[in-house]
Amino acid sequence: MTTIAFIGLGNMGNPMAANLVKAGHCVTGFDLMAENLATAREHGLSIAADAREAVKDADVVVTMLPAGKHVVAVYEEIAPAARPGTLFIDSSTIDVESARKAHALVADHGHVSVDAPVSGGTGGAAAGTLTFMCGGAEGAFTRAEPILQPMAGRIVHCGGAGAGQAAKICNNMILGISMIGVAEAFVLGEKLGLSHQALFDVASTSSGQCWSLTTYCPVPGPVPTSPANNGYKPGFAAALMLKDLKLAQEAAQGAGAPTPLGAEAAQLYALFNAQGGGGTDFSGIVEFLRGKIA
Ligand code: NAD
C-alpha cells in the first residue's frame, strides 16, 4: 500500500483515483469543486482541506489538471510541502515547456517526477485501461510504473522530461489530421454517388486504412460502435482535440518544426468549435465539412 495524494478530481481524475483506491492504496484527494470532492469521498478517498495538506504525508502525488498554468501553480504550492524524495506524476495534457518547468520545480525541492499524459478518455479512466505516455528519468519511471498499473492498459517510457507530453501531442496531431482526411473522403464519396459501406470496405483493407476510419468511422453504419451512430456524443470532444492541436502548434513553433497539415487541422477544429461543435465528438467534423454546421 502506498500513500497517494490525488489533485484534480474532474472527469478523468475521479475515476483514476477510484482505481487507485480499489488497488488498495491510501488516497487523499483535493479539488476546487465541492461536487467533485463529494464523488471522490464516495469512491473511498480521504479529502484534504487544501493541496498542501493532501501532499504532506504522501509517497506519491498524482495531478490531473486542465492546463500547464494550473500544473505549474499547483506544483509551486505543493513542492515545498511534500517530503523530500516524493514522486510527482502529472497526467494532465499540457504544453511541453510547462511540463519541463514542472519537472525542474520539483527537482529543486529534492523530489523526482514523471510527466504521464494519457489517452483513452473517461471510458478508459473508469475501466483502468488508459495508455500512459511517460517522460522522466529511468529511476522515476521505475517508481511510477506500479502506481500507474491499476489505471493502465499500457505504459510507455518515451524518454526524458517532457517526452510523454511530446508523444501525446504528436499522436493527437496525427489523429486530428487523419480524421479530417477520412471525413473529407466520405464527403467526396457522397458527392460521387459512392455508398459509405463501399468506401469503407475498400479503404479499410487498402492503403487508406487508419484508426479514424476503422475504429472511429465518422459516418454512421460501417463501425457500429463509433460516435457517428450515437449523434456524435463524445467520445473525445472536439474542444479537447482543438486543445491538443493548439499545443502541437505551440510546440512546433517553439521547435521550428514544419507542420502545415497540423496547422490546417487546428484551424478547421477552431472553426468547428467556434460554430458550436466543441461539445460534440471530434469525428463530427464531417458535419462541418458538409456545411451542415454554419
Ligand atoms: P476536468 O475539467 O473535468 O477536471 C479538472 C479538475 O481540476 C477540475 O475538477 C478542477 O476543479 C480541478 N482543478 C483546477 N485547478 C485546480 C487547483 N488549483 N487545485 C485543485 N484542483 C484544481 O478535466 P478532465 O476532463 O478531467 O481533464 C483533465 C486533463 O486530462 C486535461 O489536461 C485534459 O486535456 C486531459 N485529458 C482529458 C481526456 C478526456 O477525455 N476528458 C482525455 C485525455 C486527457
From TrEMBL:
InterPro entries: 3-OH-isobutyrate_DH-rel_CS, 6-PGluconate_DH-like_C_sf, 6PGD_dom2, 6PGDH_NADP-bd, HIBADH, HIBADH-like_NADP-bd, HIBADH-related, NAD(P)-bd_dom_sf
Active site feature: 168
Protein name from the UniProt record: 3-hydroxyisobutyrate dehydrogenase
GO MF, one example: NAD binding
Reaction it catalyzes: 3-hydroxy-2-methylpropanoate + NAD(+) = 2-methyl-3-oxopropanoate + NADH + H(+)
GO biological process: L-valine catabolic process
Pathway(s) per entry: Amino-acid degradation; L-valine degradation
Ranges where the 6-phosphogluconate dehydrogenase NADP-binding domain occurs: 3-159
Domain 3-hydroxyisobutyrate dehydrogenase-like NAD-binding intervals: 162-288
EC number: 1.1.1.31
Top-tier EC class: oxidoreductase
Keywords in alphabetical order: Branched-chain amino acid catabolism, NAD, Oxidoreductase
Top-level taxon of the source organism: Bacteria
Family classification: Belongs to the HIBADH-related family.
Listed PANTHER family: 3-HYDROXYISOBUTYRATE DEHYDROGENASE, MITOCHONDRIAL, 3-HYDROXYISOBUTYRATE DEHYDROGENASE-RELATED
Native source organism of the sequence: Aquamicrobium defluvii
